[in-house]
Amino acid sequence: MVRMQCPASLRKYGFCGILATIYAARLPMPTSIEKLETLLKEVKQVLSMSKSKWGKVAHKRKGAISFSDTINLLNHYKNCEYELLSNGQENGTPTLNKWIKSVTANTCYIVHVKRHALFVEVGAVKSKWRVYDQSGVHTKDNPDFMQKKGGYGRKKMKAVIKITYIKAS
């Protein structure tokens, strides 16, 4: 299933962790700056953040949340179940490139690398993965995102959360 991409007007904001949570919890994608501001206000209330949080920061940091905040948002929205697979504290933590080769088919993950969060969706064939973030959707067919020097594929993973969707009965 191809998910809605982050609109170009919102790509300058640093809400990657919130965006990964939007994808994981299947929340509506904000389509304008006003809708993003409303979402950020809701997130601040859920996470008990001060009203001034993100007030005067640069766009690239506006909406930035930590790994523990991501977990708290998943707990709040309850649209999916999750399992913490790695917290990045183990020795020999793989890079995103190496890890993505070991994923199983029909799975979804939130992956934190350095200071960025990504949503990874793996299709029925495990080599048919998609990585979602503010810059759009990335697959193995466009390797620049993963392979270039400084790209996210070369970064060691900090945390991995496996997302499982609850089947409606």
Q: How would you explain this protein's 3D organization?
A:
The chain is an alpha+beta fold. It is built from five helices and six strands. The protein has a single domain, classed as Cathepsin B, Chain A (Alpha-Beta Complex). Helices cover 26% and strands 21% of the residues. Strand 3 (116-122) and strand 4 (129-133) form a beta hairpin. The radius of gyration is 15 Å and the shape is globular.
The percentage helix is: 25-40%
Mean residue pLDDT: 87
Trace the largest sheet across and list its strands: 1-6-2-3-4-5
Query: What is the succession of H and E elements?
Result: HHHEHEEEEHE
Tell me the distance between the termini: 21 Å
Structural class: alpha+beta
Give the helix tally. Answer: 5
The beta-strand count equals 6
The assigned CATH architecture is Alpha-Beta Complex
Tell me the strand percentage band.
15-25%
- Major pleated sheet: 6 strands, antiparallel
Keywords:
169 residues; alpha+beta; Cathepsin B, Chain A; 6-stranded antiparallel beta sheet; 5 helices; 26% helix
SSE layout and pairings?
Layout: H1 16-25, H2 33-46, H3 67-77, E1 81-86, H4 96-100, E2 107-113, E3 116-122, E4 129-133, E5 136-138, H5 144-147, E6 157-164
Antiparallel strand pairs: 1-6, 2-3, 2-6, 3-4, 4-5
Helix pairs in contact: 1-3
Please provide a brief summary of the model.
With 169 residues, the protein is an alpha+beta fold. It has five helices and six strands; from the N terminus they run H-H-H-E-H-E-E-E-E-H-E. The protein has a six-stranded antiparallel sheet with strand order 1-6-2-3-4-5.
